[in-house]
Amino acid sequence: MLASQYRPQEIEKQAHLEWEASGAHRxxxxxxxxxxxxxSMFPYPSGKLHMGHVRNYTxxxxxxxxxxxxxxxxxxxMGWDAFGLPAENAAMANGVPPAKWTYDNIxxxxxxxxxLGFAIDWERELATxxxxxxxxxxxxxxxxxxxxxxxxxxxVVNWDPVDQTVLANEQVIDGRGWRTGVMVEKxxxxxxYMRITDYSEELLAALDTLPGWPDRVKTMQANxxxxxxxxxxxxxxxxxxxxxxxxxxxxxxxxLMGVTFCAVAAEHPLASAAAKDNSKxxxxxxxxxxxxxxxxxxxxxxxxxxxxxxxxxxxxxxKQIEVWVGNYxxxxxxxxxxxxxxxxxxxxFAFAKKYGLAIxxxxxxxxKPYCMAAWQEWYADYGVCVNSGKYDGMDxxxxxxxxxxxxxxxxxxxxQTTWRLRDWGISRQRYWGxxxxxxxxxxxxxxxxxxxxxxxxxxEDCVPDGSGxxxxxxxxxxxxxxxxxxxxxxxxxxTMDTFVDSSWYYSRYACADxxxxxxxxxxxxxxxxxxxxxxIEHAILHLLYSRFWTRVMRNLGLLQFDEPFTNLLTQGMVLxxxxxxxxxxxxxxxxxxxxxDVRVDEKGARTAATLKSDGLPVESAGIxxxxxxxxxxxxxxxxxxxxxxxxxxxxxxFAAPPEQTLEWSDSGVEGxxxxxxxxxxxxxxxxDAISKGIKGTAHCSKLSENQAAARREVxxxxxxxxxxxxxxxxxxxxxxxxxxxxxxxRLPESETxxxxxxxxxxxxxxxxxxxxxxxxxxxxxxxxxxxxxxAWPEPEARAxxxxxxxxxxxxxxxxxxxxxxxxxxxxxxxxxxxxxSPLAMKYIVGQxxxxxxxxxxxxxxxxx
RNA sequence: GCCGGGAUGGCGGAAUUGGUAGACGCACGGGACUCAAAAUCCCGCGCCCUUAAAAGCGUGAGGGUUCGAGUCCCUCUCCCGGCACCA
Length: 864
Hints:
The radius of gyration is 34 Å and the shape is globular. A four-stranded parallel beta sheet has the order 2-1-26-27, covered by helices on one side. A four-stranded antiparallel beta sheet has the order 6-5-9-19. Strands 13-14-12-15 form a four-stranded mixed beta sheet, with helices on both faces. Helix content is 36%, strand content 22%. It is an alpha+beta fold. A hairpin with a 2-residue loop joins β34 (804-811) and β35 (814-822). The longest helix is centred in the last third of the chain and has 22 residues, at 705-726. The structure holds one RNA strand.
């Protein structure tokens, strides 16, 4: 018997018990059975789940359950990206060690994930902050060190001079330290790097082997790697009596004859040399070195520069060219120096205009006038060389070849391929991360920790206070013996970038219990990941580092594949409304949408919003991602407790397609809940009839016209829904479920045959989305024991057949109505029927028919 | 600034390849049931003119290709994601 009322809490709890008892979500290696590894990006244990998690893991769970029903052996694991800055911030705020805070959060969030009914194999759970995981970070780091993939060099960091600490970019606000408020400085410190640039070519080329990745992600990665072809040019000069060469890289050597200055980065050796006895320049160079290291900030800074007083010679004409220091020149790209061609480059133009430097046209584009006199014209288009001596009249390709040849002849340049991608600096001057397994010895230098001393265990009871890395204050951690000479030595206290942790965790899930090796043979069975799901914000860094790391492991013989993620789904963000009031000092107070009343007019359009507590108006700042700072988050817990996990899941899937942003809506949730109540009631009302009814296919021949029409509709919607499933369009799958229920509800209750079949289709179609209610109804109505072992529903061709079909009738491209024609009608017959239809007559009598377009199954267009 | 993406009723969204724009849901309006409320059910719902029908307009803005454009091309505006130490 079925209770008349839908009580999600009860049936969900019961379902969880049954699934747990039967081990329904365990994934075991079954040789020969097709496997499907479905992975969602693991969460950072920030405290409690947010809606972005719920969305991400619901998408993953829908795919997991769908593929199980399709006969795959599916693995869906879960773990914790447990190292990172927020734990240290929480420690500073509450005095709790990051470890305790992290483990408490994991326990709570795990409970929440379980309450959502995800088909996760919890036996494979991992947390990156556990020595059993990060020891393999350390182990692989040492292998990379041996192979020369890891190396040491200096890198630039944000330095807070008051707290005497390195700041993350996130901790720099408007160029100042977040806690001290003082201007941040750039500081160079020694760091360890991974040679991801050794893999530039492969990482770029292999994007073509990833048809299952969204094009936008592949484009972003390709642009990030940034392969460009150009020429490396030398501008000779003499300094301290020695002949030297200033090297620049350009992709536009065709504009070489238009160079009117050169500009170098503040960190460039030439800038330092010139600043030595020029205090004004030294001050300017210092100024450039202050402020944030973020590229976005640098690129938006006002272009500033100062002449060095040094001159270099044009490599082909010998003309003297002044060298400037420019804050828009990045030391990290190319040679840290550029040739200035203000006539044909936007940034050079802005710079030249500001400092009154010469602008010369050396490229002409047909049909595009160049108005030098106005001093506001430049263009970067490709064209033909002019004012360029022997190169005049040459197009881009020819001039590049000619100029490169001439440069080579004088030993001042050759063609070069340059990459935008930089090596990956992994050192972090922070506590809550994987210790870098090195020991610094006065006599032996940097000594790797021997494998048998791994893992280097991070003490779990430190409490950071914002002034540097607490590991430095731990004598028992820092002081150690040199593994080579045995003398007292100093342990490295830098930890690894947390992107290291997330670069290979997907492999570890296959063998999380192995404490003898990083990976084992089970990886061969499960990997690569068939479907990876996560936020679009990870499109570049995390995914690129993972692709790199996979190749490193492959080259060490640990993995047998090139690409870790065969298919990628990038999910959109979850947004909510933002309400605020301005307070005195121009600051804003934000109010949670749950505390705001919104009034509407008789058409449903919004008229006003007021705060519930005081009834006074609040302002709307539109919609934005759910965040603490905008106070617009919705706690999934309250929702689950009130409406159940199925409602939360169904709303998430219905409100928007997975890749798009999703806007939160309380009434939308209410609608989802209403639908599930209707679904339940349909089953409860027809319980007796359906449980006694004949299961299986309803036979067309025995059906009335009414029944056949309803059945046709169900199968038609199913056909579309199956297509949508294959495209991961879960929002239209959800709406297909609603359409099927609408169709079945329109049928009289006595139509048991069609109802029984239709409802079984509906339950199977929806069970990946709302597993609990479908699981319960399926067995309660006697369809079988377990809906997840049932066959996936397929539309029946015979159910879709019909004698007549409707075609749209257009007159000269304007839709005027529709006509009915026999399904088998030929193009000619359709044309005749269309002409004879009263609707067409009305428009074509007395007109000259120029042309008739017939699109089979769609429309007829009579052009007059 | 650079790279990537987006824009469709009051709202979320739908519309396989160019072929009836607005499926499905929310909100809103009207009605039924009820002592009443909640729940539930029925009807309506892009804009404009209108008693109604018909016509006209309509997918961010402007232009183009086509018998036909939300969908393809060009130009522009606004919004969102990333920019290497947030994860």
